[in-house]
Amino acid sequence: MKSERRAARAALILALLALTNQCTRSVQGENTQPVVHIGGTVIRGLGTRVDQTVVQQFLGIRYAQAPTGQRRFQQPVSAELPAQVDATRYGARCPQEPLQKRGMSEDCLFLNVFFPERSQPDHLLPVMVYIHGGGFIIGTGDIFEGDVLAAEGHVVVVTFNYRLGALGFLATGDNSSLGNYGLWDQRLALKWVHRHIRHFSGDENRITLAGMSAGAVSASLLSLSPLSRDLFRHVVQLSGSASSPWGRLSSAHALRAAQRLGQRLGCHSKDHNISTQALVTCLRGQRLDRLVTSSHVLFPRQVALSLVDYAWGPVRDGMMVTDLDTATPFAGPLLAGLVNNEGNTLTSWTVPRISRYILDIDELITQRTFHQQQFLPTLLKQAYPDLVQLAYPTKNEVNTDTYTQLPYSQALSSLECAYLDGKDESTGQRVGEREVWDVFGDQAFVLGTVRYLRQFCVYQSSFLYYFDHQTIRPGVVGMGHTDDLAYLFGFNSTIASIVGFDGHVTDLDLRLARDFRQLFYNFIKTGDPNSPDRPTNWPLWPPHTSKGADYLLVSPAPRVLSHLKAYKMALWTEEVPHVLSSPGNASVVWQCLTSNESFSVRCSSCLVVFLLMIMI
Length: 616
Hints:
Layout: H1 2-18, E1 28-29, E2 35-38, E3 41-44, E4 46-50, E5 53-62, E6 84-86, E7 110-116, E8 125-131, H2 147-153, E9 156-160, H3 165-169, H4 181-196, E10 202-212, H5 214-224, E11 234-238, H6 251-264, H7 276-284, H8 288-294, E12 334-339, H9 345-354, H10 361-364, H11 367-372, H12 375-383, H13 385-391, H14 408-419, H15 433-456, E13 462-467, H16 484-489, H17 494-498, H18 507-526, E14 550-554, E15 559-562, H19 566-581, E16 589-592, E17 599-602, H20 606-615
Parallel strand pairs: 3-6, 8-9, 8-10, 10-11, 11-12, 12-13, 13-14
Antiparallel strand pairs: 1-4, 2-3, 4-5, 5-7, 7-9, 14-15, 16-17
Helix pairs in contact: 1-9, 6-7, 12-13, 12-15, 14-19, 15-19, 19-20
């Protein structure tokens, strides 16, 4: 049964990647062809209808020159608009695994615009630019149809593609390949929108930048970069932020990934030494299919440097990716969101996709393999790489010797007691999927959001929601990573189909989605989700502050709570770094009790922090 469930999940995510450019539309087309004039350019789109509103779509508009040939591993170059543009179908998707000859191309930098037909043509509408997620290695803009948002909320929606994997993030730590090309693509798309969106009924002075997961990390980084922060006014970060443990890679890690890719493709000398310039020249000359296939899952199982192969992603460069400690905070409003089962991505797509390389969920869910497969050690190192390096300056990697030594063993014991409910490794007691989901979701998504809000909510008006809902989808527990996008883009959208909502939507889901979207419309228009039209019977959503730490529980019974996951976040943000940085003075004593009891904690700092958080 479990293997069948995993196979179904794997098939689900592969369906996302296997979709051709003929994506299922959420509405039926009409025999109209809207036209937009920009200077001497004529752009022809499509007209569709959502309920009683006509929505105009302009798809596959090129915003950058093809990043091919010598432009591979280079910052994007803006494209001049030709005299005629056929914007009636999506452009090619950016190359990713599994690579498809049809529908994918290295020439993939296209964007899509959706906006409602207006009775007052001179009245410009607020704009939402959406950045898709996918761990910086998969994803595409064309599965997020903006029809419903445009028609119902009277806003303009823009989606787009950006380079992924090695093509988007190859970095050598020097001028040979600076990296962050995917982020530079995003910035150029924003510049295009800022320059031209007025022709599509949009107000360039009222742009909200939104993203999910890797898209949220991107939006967060762009809001902190002086090169892009002036291109939008509001930010939406769903299940990710610049503080996410996987959101920023070190130059050393990025170089290691580039070198491993070069070795796979034969880009090395007899003694395996090669300059970074020669390496990049060699990789630039590789066939696309070999480059994409070889760049997938670089780190072998026994090393397990990451759980989802974070070989590619944003690299700290001081330009697009700044140091969070010294970054100038973004002053515009922030809306952040999380769901109650973020960690299900581990079994819904991550593991089925790469389990043959890194880990297997059936092997993982015993406590013993948490160590054998370096699950918890890897999560800990990802969360606090600098502190782990400080504690073990002579070790290049976390291994089985490391996690049995102080202070690492203390930190791991803390996590085991908190998440594994006192199960005894020596007896091989079974750990359930939900426990695996909880620890992974908290580390990968909740921790980064909480850390980011704590650091920046004093500078910007910030709002946090936590989506807590159980759907009727068979075998699906709670709201998984990306499930809230079905409520945002509508249940007829392609993304809703991908996450399993086809035929599994209730009237309650429809009402909840309508109210959920209203909060977004308010935020896009005013920077405040409460105004101008708060949904009926929903509480006032207070800002998230360092003192109150309030958040909105999105559910059939919405309410305001405070200090999201206070106990476990105190462990991750206070006690674990304290143990790692001061092993000799660590006073934490964790007592895992029997499986019939839960667990108890005695400590001089973690418990105090927890109590203070709930009392303030």
